[in-house]
Structures are given as C-alpha cells and as structure tokens.
Specification:
This protein has helices spanning about 20-30, 50-60, 85-90, 105-120, 135-145, 160-170, 235-240, 250-265, 270-285, and strands at about 10-15, 35-45, 65, 80, 95, 100-105, 125-130, 150-155, 175-180, 195, 225, 245-250. The protein is of the alpha/beta class. The protein binds NADPH dihydro-nicotinamide-adenine-dinucleotide phosphate. NADPH dihydro-nicotinamide-adenine-dinucleotide phosphate binds near residues 110, 133, 136, 157 and 227.
C-alpha cells in the first residue's frame, strides 16, 4: 500500500552532466530497497551553484552529489563539512540533517573499499604510485594515507597540482609523499605495491589512449588500478594484465562510492550487486 505519492529527491549538480552514470545505479538501488526515491541529473553552471543549493534546501532534497565544476565551490554554501572532506578541500556528496546541509566525500572511501573488498588488499604499510593529481587523486590519496599507507608517489604532468597534493599529504596525514614530474615515459619503481591511473586518459570515447608508463617496469606482484569506470577494462589495465599483474577497475570504486552516499542519505545499506549489474548493462550498450 503506497502511503505517499510524493518522491524523495536526490540528484547530481554539474556542468556537463548529461553523461553522468550515477542515476543508472541509484534508481535500481532505491527500487530494490523499496524506497520511493528519485535521482535527477541537474545541469547547474558555476554561476548558478548558490541558487541551486538554496533551491535544494527549499525543495527538501534529501541530499545531492557534486561533480565538475562544483566540488570545491560548494564548501562555502554548506553548514558543516566532514573532517576528511575538509582535509581534501572537496565535497562530492551532501547529506541533510534536519535543515543543515553536511558535506562529505565518498570518492576516496569508494576506492578504499574496492581495494579491500574487490582486490582483497590491506593498504596498511604499502608503497603506492598515483598517476594524476586531480580531484579524484586528491580524495583517493588522502583516504589511503588516513588508512595507513606508508608512501605515496604522485606523478603528474603539471607541477603546481602535483606539488600541492604532496604538501597536503606530508603536512596533514601520517603518510610520506613525494612528487615526480611526468615528462616522458614513467618507469614504475621497484617495490611498488599499488599503481593507480587517476587521470582521465583512456576514458570513453578515447579508449585507445594509454598513460605514458613503461609497462615492462611493472612487476607481476603490483596491483594495477584504474579510476576510469567506462570502459571497465581500459587499455592500461589490459597492458598490465599482459605483464601478468593483477588489476582492479574503476567500476568497483564507482559502485562503492555510490553505496557510501546511498547509506549517508537513506541510512540503509545499498544492494551493491544491483548497482553493479545496472552499470555493467549500461556500459555494454
Ligand atoms: P581532474 O580534471 O581533476 O584531474 C585530471 C588529472 O588527469 C590531472 O592530474 C591531469 O593532469 C591528468 N591528465 C589528464 N589528461 C592528461 C594527459 N593527457 N596527460 C597527462 N595527464 C593528464 O579530474 P578528476 O580527478 O575529477 O577525474 C579523473 C578521472 O577519474 C576521470 O576519468 C573520472 O571519470 C574518474 N573518476 C572516477 C571515479 C570512480 O568512482 N570510478 C570517481 C571520480 C572520478 P594535469 O594536472 O597536468 O592537468
């Protein structure tokens, strides 16, 4: 028996937003949990963010996700920010507590869960190399550092972003970090436990692009990860598999970070298999 015909609303604010796949996994998860909730993709340009947040408050949104270009700008419009998101200086999920809007970041948590649950690897004491220093790398490295990773090398094309992230990790987390400018083909140092492509190189439709890494320098016992969820098996992961390395794709991270947001909004655990199946079907088409 339906007690209310009114939907509870969540969604994503971004520009661009049309190809954001989050709703593809959220709506089936709400249905599987018996929740009368809807996930809307909302095109919000940078100048309209303050009005969009005020609108979400007025319309009673239960929460929302932020994507490009809002993850940093949204901070000043919130009532509170979770400590890890404050450290990263970026929010990708907002939850509502009464009339208050609280900022969270689920990207790094999703990656951490994927490393632990999908790859069965404990990040404690590990030596990690990140290709990229953008928003995703920032969230992922901060969570890994807080989870006990020993050392993080940031390899990035632009100097400013790379050195800024290394400074943050060294000054604000227990991990040690170092910056390597990405000039030519990068050779992965011996003893690297986890190697992560946190750039957008290889993202659909540019699926033949591969990060400039000397694949012969990848040891077979290194776990090689990609943040890109589409295609699930990127050219980079395929090349690492050819070297005999274990790999972890970005689909798991996408599902797990969505499941963390789902729990923050609804208070219940999401059916992650339903979310994963929905995304795999979507990316196949
Ligand atoms: P940003 O724009 O913040 O950062 C992009 C990073 O990629 C920068 O470090 C940039 O280097 C680097 N980069 C891009 N193109 C090149 C290139 N041709 N050569 C060398 N470096 C390059 O993006 P995000 O961090 O937000 O996103 C990165 C990727 O992560 C995207 O593909 C996104 O889809 C994915 N992602 C996946 C998630 C998941 O759940 N699986 C969640 C969030 C993001 P520079 O600083 O020099 O410009």
């Amino acid at each position: 028996m339906v007690t209310s015909l009114r939907h509870d609303l969540v969604g994503a604010f971004g520009d661009p937003i049309d190809e954001n796949p989050t709703g593809v996994m959220m709506e089936p998860a709400f249905a599987a949990a018996g929740l009368n909730w809807r996930y809307q993709l909302l095109h919000v340009g940078a100048a309209d963010l303050p009005a969009a947040v005020a609108g979400a408050r007025a319309l009673g949104f239960r929460g929302f996700n932020l994507t490009i270009p809002h993850k940093v700008a949204v901070l000043e419009h919130l009532d509170a920010v979770a400590p890890d998101a404050a450290l990263m200086g970026a929010v990708n999920t907002v939850r509502r507590e009464g009339d208050r809007l609280i900022g969270e970041n689920t990207d790094g948590k999703g990656f951490l869960r994927s490393i632990r649950e999908d790859a069965g690897v404990d990040p404690g004491g590990k030596f990690v190399v990140f290709l990229g220093a953008g928003g995703a790398a920032r969230a992922m490295t901060v969570e890994l550092a807080l989870a006990g990773v020993e050392h993080i090398t940031i390899v990035n094309r632009s100097l400013g972003r790379g050195t800024e992230l290394v400074k943050l990790l060294n000054e604000k987390t227990p991990a040690r970090a170092q910056f390597v400018p990405w000039i030519d083909t990068y050779r992965v140092p011996q003893g690297t436990n986890i190697l992560v492509n946190a750039t957008s190189i290889g993202l659909y439709p540019n699926t033949s692009d591969i990060p400039a890494v000397d694949m012969t320098s990848i040891a077979p016992d290194t776990l090689v990860c990609d943040v890109i969820p589409n295609p699930p098996n990127t050219g980079f992961l395929a090349a690492a598999q050819a070297r005999g390395a274990r790999t972890l794709n970005g689909l798991g991270m996408l599902v797990h970070q969505g499941a963390v947001a789902f729990k923050l909004w609804t208070g219940i655990d999401a059916d992650e298999q339903v979310m994963r199946d929905a995304l795999e079907r979507f990316f196949r088409n």
